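Morning F.,

Quick status update on the modeling queue. The single chain you submitted on Monday has been processed. Sequence for confirmation:
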Amino acid sequence: MSAFPRRDFVKGGLATALGVCAQRQGWSALPQETDRQRAVRGNPFVPGRGLCDPQVRVFDGRVYLYATHDYSPQSTHFRMDNWWVWHSDDLVHWEQVSILEPQQTFLRSPFTECWATDAATRAGKYYFYFSAGPKQIGVVEGPTPAGPWHDPLGKPLIAEGLTPVEERDPGILMDDDGSNYIVFGTWDYYIARLNDDMISLAEAPRLIKLDHKAGPYGEGKTDDKPFLHKRNGIYYLSWGCFYAMADNPYGPYTYKGSIVTPETTAADFQTTNIYRDRHGSFFQLHGQWYFACNDRSQKGSTPYFRNSILSYLHYRDNGEMAPILISSLGVGQYDAAAGPIQAEDFFRIEGGEVKERRGGGFEVRGLTDRSLLVYPKVRNVPVRAKLLVRYSNGGGGKGKVEIRETNASGKLLGHAAIPSTGDWNHYAELEVPLRSTAAELDLAFVLRGDGGELVRLDSWRLAGQQA
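Structure tokens below.
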């Protein structure tokens, strides 16, 4: 897969030194960061705690993170004493809401190999799948995404020796037709459909066919950490930042490459091998796609004491995934001082879609009357700011854009008619003066008009108005 660099990418970012101290449940950053410091940081999104192997699920509109955690920056091997659940409403501020202790599972005693996890829901119950080291996969269930948890089996769901690979690193695919699948393994991956009870297998695990193997260790090898997700009828099998595509969950899968590239990784996130240990997951929230994965680039981290990061994820028109941008800004917040903000990097969309733009990159299309784009936590807003929107309007529709605070019914900050550019591939810049003196804004773009598609948005920026 060829690189598809972001137009606004700037190498560089924030690198924060983290002190650590031991606590009962692991390690945490000292001093504790304020909300403002955390927002400025962005990535890693829970720094200095050893939070890793992020499996993200969206249940009832709220984001839940099922994770392992490395015990200490002094560790010389993978020590993980329990499993964590965190949640967030904005992908910037995170709260720990549950801890699963090995004593609550079939293990029945303390255990230091609490490895990778995933979660699913069915019929009002929630299921938390976990690796007991590299040998067994268990499951607990609860009434909420955060538990309380109990082990309904009292034994592994997938026991050692069931397949020729290590029975670990479960990933759950909740398919559109109500079927649920579990994928697991190292180097080779096995898949099995789950019964409706979600705690038993409906079939013997099958080997997933992959046409080409490559990964962080070079040609001929994949990795551990398989994950499955689906978009527009295409199934994506990933191992860390590498992936393949198929038209059914069993495959065969066609290898595509890595979504992590040197060209789209900020200087302060570069490592000797940027592809290594990118255990992660893909998820969609408010119409936006994201990738969460491990990271060990920051000061204070080691191969056995890692962080997790988040990036926007965009799909090419042929279904392939474009390289992600890895930077300290992260997601769910924006810096007006950093230059143009790509329109496709929204936090929420209603009535529109991301498509490739001729000449490279992406744009937001299909924006009609009442379409909405939200960009919260825009900081470094200039005094007497004006919004400059790079757009095209090659249709016959006549419309305007309203810039409101927070949402479609929020305070009106400014508005402007959208002139024709003559062609959808010809871009112009629309100026919208804003009536606000705030240094930080939650911006909502609301489209008004008739005649179908009103505008296509490429990017936007904020500048100071002339006195």
